[in-house]
Write a structure and sequence with these properties.
129 residues, de novo design (two linked rop proteins), 80% helix
């Protein structure tokens, strides 16, 4: 998936999470969930953008790790909302699936980045002889 596509996808995820939060009942528990869920879900998009302009590979991996943590936390809040029956599973299921998919994408990206050699290999050495 291209960087531009992931930027759009993470931003759309944040928008959808905010809308889901606005659908929560008005009570103390939901007020707490709203704050936490909005914070982590919008952080997915913001920190992915920060990762895209990272100054080094270790910086990129570090920022991507934050994205993974925040995406996973977003999934936690959606599962919690379902378990507490604050919204129906049907209302949350598609967005929860998107959160899980984004988490998996970023975990794979981090693994791939970590596994890449930092050494420069001349192009002619990579060619099949």
């Amino acid at each position: 998936m291209k960087e531009k596509d992931l930027k759009n996808r993470t931003k759309e995820f944040a928008h959808r999470c905010v809308k889901l939060c606005l659908a929560l009942p008005k009570n103390d528990l939901c007020s707490h969930i709203r704050k936490q869920f909005i914070k982590c879900s919008t952080s997915v998009a913001a920190n992915y953008r920060a990762a895209c302009v990272a100054q080094s590979r270790p910086d990129f991996v570090s920022k991507l790790s934050i994205v993974i943590e925040e995406a996973d936390e977003s999934c936690f809040w959606m599962e919690f909302i379902i378990e507490e029956k604050l919204l129906s599973e049907k209302q949350v299921a598609d967005l929860l699936q998107e959160g899980k998919e984004l988490t998996a994408i970023f975990v794979t990206s981090r693994k791939t980045t970590k596994n890449r050699s930092t050494e420069f290999i001349p192009e002619e050495e990579l060619a099949v002889k």
